[in-house]
Known about the structure:
GO molecular function (chain A): glycerol-3-phosphate dehydrogenase (quinone) activity
Radius of gyration of chain B: 21 Å
Strand content of chain A: 15-25%
Mean pLDDT of chain B: 91
Largest interface: A-B, 31 and 29 residues
Family (chain A): Belongs to the FAD-dependent glycerol-3-phosphate dehydrogenase family.
Oligomer: heterodimer
Structural class of chain B: alpha/beta
Low-confidence stretches of chain B: 1-28
Number of strands of chain B: 8
Protein name (chain A): glycerol-3-phosphate dehydrogenase
EC number (chain A): 1.1.5.3
Number of helices of chain B: 24
Mean pLDDT of chain A: 89
Keywords (chain A): Cell membrane, FAD, Flavoprotein, Membrane, Oxidoreductase
Amino acid sequence: MTETPSVLVIGGGSTGCGIVRDLAMRGLDVTLVEKGNLTHGTTGRMHGLLHSGGRYAVSDQPSARECIEENRVLRRIATHCVEMTGGLFVQRPEDDDEYFEEKLQGCRDCGIPAEVLSGEEAREMEPYLAKDVKRAIRVPDGAIDPFRLCVANAADAIDRGARVETHAEVVDVLVEDGEIVGVEVEHGEKDIGIGNGEPGTREKLYADYVVNATGAWAGQIGDMAGVEVAVRPSKGVMTIMNVRQVDTVVNRCRPKGDADIIVPHETTCILGTTDEEVEDPEDYPEEGWEVDLMIDTLSELVPMLSEARTIRSFWGVRPLYEPPGTGTVDPTDITRDFFLLDHGERDDLPGMASIVGGKLTTYRMMAEKISNHVCEKLGVEAECTTADVPLPGSEDFSVLREWMDEFGIRSPVGRRSAQRLGSRTDDVLGGWDGPNPVVCDCEAVTRAEIHDAIDHSGTDLNAVRIRTRSSMGNCQGAFCCHRMANELIHDHDELVVRDSLDELYQERWKGERHALWGEQLSQAMLKHMLHATTMNRDGDPAASDSNVDFAAFDAGETATAAAGTTGDDPDRAATDGGREGENADS
Amino acid sequence: MSDAENPSNPTPDEQTDFEPVQVFDDETEMDLRPGADNCYKCTSCDTSCPVAEVDDDFPGPKFQGPEQWRLKRKGDEDIDDSIMSCSNCMRCDNACPSSVPLSQMHNTARGEYVDEQMDKLSREYIRNRILSNYRIMAEIGSKVPRLTNFALNNSVVQKVNEKVLGITSERDFPEFAQQTFREWWHERGGARVSSEEKKIAYFHGCYSNYNTPEVAKALVRVFEVFGYEIAVPRQRCSGTPMFANGMLDDAERAAEVNVSEFSDLIDEGYDVIASCTSCSMSLRQEYPELFEFHGTAEVSAHTYEAMEYLRIHEDLEAEIENASVEEQSFAYHAPCHARNQGLEHQAVELFRELDGVNIEDVGDSCSGISGTYGWKDEKYDTSMKIGEEMFDHMEHAEGNVGMTECPTCSMQMEHGTGYDIKHPLQLLEEALV
């Protein structure tokens, strides 16, 4: 083979981004297509837990072992995406002692460092735990930002020559002579994102091998190719709290159940979750009782949650899969392991593999195994190096600097920027010329960081959001959506900026509407009023088809000059309350 | 008079012990992240902040409070140094429609900043420590008031203060009285009225003890006219200047003495009365927000400003309507801390009914001095810029005597206009005694 073998990866979640980086590092010609943003599907809708493996230490020990192994890898290669919070499996008085012992033993069997704490010691770590908690197991759980993780993988792949097309939905899988040879994508109508594709057009992309990494959507891609991929999508709700009630991952130590985990995530806490099978990964009910269940049940562990402010809720769909014939009824019993389905071997349709199951913590290991498979199919011999080479932003970060003075930003703002940017802090903030005001107050995101994100993601403000967390704080974009859009206006045309602002605003509303009580209701109302009264967001004339009768307000300068007195002129409304204007006298 | 212990023999550690003592242990460390839940970013606090109005570099109360707290993680220590530019006027508390504990957040942040980030040997720290422990300075200075008054307002000394300590030379130090209020109270033999039902414990604070005993004396005479038995217990600084300078350890030590002394009297049926609105503010709001001594809540619930108390318990309006004084006109300024207690209209409402008196409110702007703030060399200009509106309104008011409840507001009013400044209690004394 003289030409570099080419691979097309479908799906811009953690698995897809991991594969595209892995293959790019091995020197292959790789293209990633994603129908929305990176992380648009399941990856962007998880609770942000970096598993120690503790959660699977009883029910699924192979997964638990993989978790602890990858937990250590990610702490090394993705330092700027990971916060090592530590985790607790907390036992309440009514929880089973036997299970607690099983959990502890399971952790030890799987090589997960585990230490038993008394209730008092656990409360010393986390003062807001319920007073009556009995004891806890401490494990090395952590928090991981899935957005930053995917973006860093994709950015590194692009640096190594990969092509990444977001807002490019696969509409067909191309089959020629009994072999899959590529896909046809439709580029989004609007000119947002970073791809090369012409908006609103279709494009055929050919490759030597196709990887279907679309998770819960794998069945739909399979249908286009004419193969069956029986993914069992299972939804789970997550509720975001406004502040971090806990700084440690808190798990309930009991066999299984809904609402048993609280993950401190950046400035917030995420409460999770439920596990319920659904038919369609994009169309399922999002119900109020699911959110109530999170808050009510987790309040047993952290009572203050019942009074605390939630800022939004979202649902994610797990791409669960089990080999045909297993017949598990309860989705919580389905293995969290992943499966590689080689359609050549399985369905006699070579040229594509589907990847299903799995979880974010082990995304790199999955990517490695799939990349190995792809290389084997294409006859490429190249070693995987993803476990050793840090992601951009996670390179050596030993030199700490005084960010705030140097970059003209306030200390907590500088600290948060540095936590997000990692080793890129100097480049992004230091490379910025000119004033650097805070654009998003809630999450402390400055103009320099916004522009860095725009440089990497084009005009897509949702992509800017996931890179920076701008608009993800407690006002949910009330005070920053338009400021973010404003950063685009010098280099882009007004309609593009409007579209982008609209998409961001709608995306924020989508999750916020699930938290409309208490403070967040006031917040949403304030947001609505501000945007309605200052930006006509309750009916923007520029966005509507009908013309605005401006003359109804004011007949214009000439009319004013001609009119004897304003009160007598039928064309002119008395917008000044009937007061005689200066022009009228002259 | 057993309750009014003579303060002229303080124990050595009371007077000279400047060593910070760690009185907060880790377990009671305040975590105000949940307080950030109430903020919906409306920015009313920022628009009401007098410092933000004149200083574009000051990020405002919303950032200092709920935003900074929300961005904190366990172990994070860096508080932005702009917290030291907050003047602690507490207007943000009043402006907030959503009960965000802004000043509590600011006080706590300032305390943390000073504890963790400020160099204890820096000029700023030493200067702030001295300013916030005014009582100790006053205690010594008032022993030899003439000498102190001469020395402090000697221009050479003022220049040295500015150069060495960063205390502005623009201002004249308030004069120490020849006799402190407590010396006078002692000499007079304490309370002259006794009553079973009407008892007040007077929190005179430092300023009316050392500098303006005429205000304290006016309070005593007015309350005795109404038949109150007055106690003047042992007391320390209310803590206001200490909160404003992040000296929470000093404040806690002072508060412990105050709470203990006054809560004992509350148990005996006394209410606590202050003539300084910052002192009453401190006992009412800041103590329960920051400390957990036995009796803190009782002291908070039983504390009143002097005129407020009389308006509640006596028919002060009727008394005033029947009284008259010599013709005089006042330009009244309501201190921010009075505003926060809902007291900003009481002097004008009352005295406009007093025969002979013309009183005009000079508006709702802040005087700008905010206690020790305007004394700092680097804050002086900000302080005067904030004060400009008030000076202007005072000059346009008919009267050329100022009136206010707050000692430092009165310094600023005098400094900016050259007017004499009176305390409402002094006019009340003139009318009723």
